[in-house]
Each structure stands twice: as C-alpha cells, then as structure tokens.
Amino acid sequence: MVRRKSYLYGLVSFLLALVVVSACAPNPRLQLISPNMVVVAEGETFVPPTPTPRPRIAPLSDEEILAGLPEGVAARIPGDAERGLSLTVPHNCIGCHVTDNSLVDVAPTWSEVADTAVGRAQQLGLAGPAMYLYRSIMEPNVYIVSGYTSDVMPDTYSVDLSEQDIADILTYLLTLRAE
Ligand code: HEC
Predict the structure, then answer these.
(1) Closest ligand 1 atom number to CA of residue 143
(2) Which residue among 112, 133, 136, 164 has the greatest number of ligand 1 atoms within 8 angstroms of its CB, and so is best to mutate?
(3) pTM of the model
(4) Is the pLDDT assigned to residue 178 strictly greater than 60?
(5) Could you read off the pLDDT of 152-162 as tens digits, one per residue?
(6) How many CB atoms lie within 10 A of CB 66?
C-alpha cells in the first residue's frame, strides 16, 4: 500500500514538473506579438518580424522615401503636414490610431510610424516607406499587420481622399519618426 502511494506521489510530481517546465519553455510566437516587433502579412503569408536594430527613415534620401508612389501624389510631397494632421480628425483616423505608445489594440500605433514603414516596406519588398503607408491607407486589406484583423480599417479612403489630401496625410505621417 505504502509503496503504491509513493509511486502515485512520484507520478503526480513528475506530471506537475512537466507542466511547470512546459509553461516556462519559450513561446516562439511571443516575439511575433510583442508590440514593437509586429509583423505584416499579405493575405496569409507572414513576413519575418521587424529586424533589430529597427530600421530608421532618417538616413534615407527623399527619392528613397518616395520611391514607388503614384506620380501625382509624389509630386505633391512635401505637402502640408498641418493640414494632413487636421484631416485625421474628420476622417476618423485618430478614432483608431494613437500617436504615442499607449496600449491601444484597435489599430497599430502611429508612434514612429515613418520608421515602422521602412521595416515593413523592406519585409514586403516594396519600393519605399511612403508607398507602404500609401497602400495601407488606400487598400487597407492588402497588408494586414499581425495581431490585427482585416476589414476593421475603412476601405473607402481611396474614394474619399483627393491626391492633395493623401499627399498631406503622408507628409504628416512621415514626420512621425524617432528624434
Ligand atoms: C476603424 C478603425 C480605423 C480607422 C478609422 C483607420 N484605421 Fe488605419 N488601421 C486600422 C487597423 C485595424 C490597422 C491594422 C490592420 C491593417 O493592416 O489593415 C490599420 C493600419 C493602418 C496603417 C499601417 C500601420 C502599420 O503599422 O503598418 C496605416 C499607415 C494606417 N492604418 C493609416 C490610417 C489613416 C491615415 C487613417 C485615416 C485616413 C486610418 N488609418 C483610419 C484601423 C483603422
């Protein structure tokens, strides 16, 4: 009887140890969901997390930043960043996006979004960061930032925004970068 009990205790503590060990094992998905390392998926294809050190927009030339943008839009950049900022109110961008790092899970933060866009463009093989921002606004369901779902951001901006509007919004977003 006694031997049987200690066998049971042994088994139970072994199972407990197993649970503890597996709970402590590193979760390979963890880095995918950390806010600073969100990945972008096109359709179902995930691209690797933003590399560290994080790419920055500051070293890029204007040409490198604007590469791949439709000509009519690129010709209007730099536009009016102040106007771009004010357009984010009636178009409700700031109803979902914040410009700081406060924990908001409705939409990806715009904190340093210009730098973020450099990494995303690299991951996706796009010509430049402005083009990534442009497409994220005009066709929001093409590239889905991991951790978020499609069909949340309105896909009406390509109709609602004029070339000047989108150029001004891009000019504003491109100012949101590390000091
Ligand atoms: C109803 C909420 C909502 C509104 C309004 C909205 N967005 Fe978004 N936005 C999202 C979500 C959710 C995502 C992430 C999913 C995706 O990639 O489409 C996103 C993604 C983006 C991205 C890509 C960010 C990144 O980190 O890669 C940009 C840029 C962006 N939005 C700009 C805008 C602009 C500009 C407006 C206004 C003209 C706007 N959004 C309005 C919800 C919103």
Answers:
(1) 17
(2) 136
(3) 0.80
(4) yes
(5) 999 999 999 99
(6) 23
